[in-house]
Amino acid sequence: MLYREAGQFKASSVEDQQIFPILQDRIAVGIVLVFAFVVVPLIGNQYWLSAILTPFLILALATLGLNILTGYAGQLSLGTAAFMAVGAFMAYNFVLRIPWMPILVSFALAGVCAAAVGIVFGLPSLRIKGFYLAVATLACQFFVLWAIQRIGWFTNYSASGVISAQKIVMFDYVFDSPASKYLLTLSIVALLALLAKNLMRSETGRTFMAVRDMDVAAEVIGIRMMRTKLLAFAISSFYCGVAGALYAFAYLGTVEPEAFNLDLSFRILFMVIVGGVGSILGSFLGAAFITLLPIFLSLVSGTVSGVFGVEVSHATLSNLEVIIFGGLIIFFLAVEPHGLARLWQIGKEKLRLWPFPH
Amino acid sequence: MNWQFFLEVLAGGLLAGVMYSLVALGFVLIYKASGVFNFAQGAMVFLAALTFVSLLERGVQFWLALVITLAVMVVLGVAIERVVLRPLVNQPQITLFMATIGLTYVLEGLSQLVWDSQPHGLELGIPDEPMMWLSETANINISQFDLFAALVAGTLVAVLAVFFQKTRIGRALRAVADDHQGALAVGIPLRQIWAIVWTVAGFVALVAGLMWGARNGVQYALTFIALKALPVLILGGFESVAGAIVGGLIIGASEKLAEVYIGPFVGGGLESWFPYVLALLFLLVRPEGLFGEKHIERV
After folding, report:
1. Does A127 map to a domain?
2. What part of B 27-86 touches A (C-beta under 8 Å)?
3. CB pairs under 8 A between A and B
4. Range of the domain at A251
5. Residue A170, by phi and psi: left (phi above 0), alpha (psi -120 to 50) or beta?
6. Which of A358, B90, B185, B236 is most buried, with most CB under 10 Å away?
């Protein structure tokens, strides 16, 4: 009843090709955007904006990047955090060494550097497939972190290897309040998500999906394997690189290379799987789920120990949280292997018929 | 070039490689029989070692502790089959892989919850010191413990080889590895086979846990050795027991040699990534590893 496309006729090819063809979708996206841009900064307090929403958006961007590579082009990668590290440390160096350059250009160039690294470590994908490729991308993860720690230039020869990201300044306006950082992150993420959405329904996206579904068949119908796979690696790493730069500048502030360890790569992969492989919306849902789950768990455990008056030690609590986190992941995979995006799909199908299913 | 020193480093590396092989074996077993890339192997090693050492510290006899730990691993194997694998039959490999990462979190949390997160020392009664006669006659220092570990690994591989080739269950395992549906069609109980294979992997994890625990102490860092086993795996090929051994030897030796001979020029710390890059270069020549099965692609 509410969500029904009946009666929405497309009179021209332009109308038929628009990004959200159904009126209800356009309204929903509009409402979400207005809510995120206007309402959230007004009602959100400092903790929510700077400790939850900003990292959520940044990780969603990285998830989007990995989803382009894994979900759309079918290349499994465990090196996401390394690409983010390249983005973060290159952005730091661009701002440090070329101070007159606008900061957004620095971020973009950092993304380009990450893309270059992605192309280099994507080269093996031309010959290696599946899990062999996944383990091979671990080489990227460990090598990049090692290089950043050992080569002093990246950290401006800081003894501990820790850098302090510079302030974000644009047209003499300093982004230092949580709300301004949140808005900057949101703008970049929204823009890049829109770009990804459009890219994935263009010829490029379709060749990605052809390669994912069966690469030999794709090659036979004339898709250039090398160009397509390397392009997927480049685009994916660009997204991850920008996410890494934002992670350093808008979220962490002071960054050590170890912040981009293997654990972060796994978490982003979790977000892709839980959210939905090969779905833009899923990237955001997955990132929200994995970011909020530990916070929710610690809230619940705090309440439970408060209600029952049981004094549980901190170590026990954190172990319990880890167990529940892992258990929920397994449970989730068993119940809905196609991720949250699939749940959303099913929900839409139901809404189409509701409230008269016959 | 100092040949004696070279030989010493080489031997040390080879023997360290045997330790990697012990962990890689567990991966291979499960991958062969169920096509699951079990990331939780490192956590299983940790759980086994921690259970064993905690029992010892509570005054349980050595052999009794061994039996109890083995029983725990059997229960764990059956439980994993029931809770994790059975609901995920016919899912893509990546989903199963992610499930085992979830399992890693559960096992790590569980073992630290039941026991504690303190590092423990483990004494197996084999001194970790250079053998006298070798260092006297050839002036090469090789630890007695390393040799013992190599012996254990060799025995383990021999036992597993006999198990796979000669016994009824072993043949059933190979049949399942070959073709799930075909195995079901001739009446092999798939679920039992999976439970058995996870149990055997648990046993291998116990052996690896004892060896690594005696070497480095039983502590949380034990879970990271799974990461060391991964390049061994792709170098040797996922499906091959022999590959796990040969891959382990190659990785161990080259890693130590690289650290000693290239390390000083680039500031050290090569061990973290060198095995991966080596395995990667190797894969460029042989994409299915040394002994992995060749995949023929058809449209």
Report:
1. yes
2. 37, 83-84
3. 133
4. 44-260
5. beta
6. B236
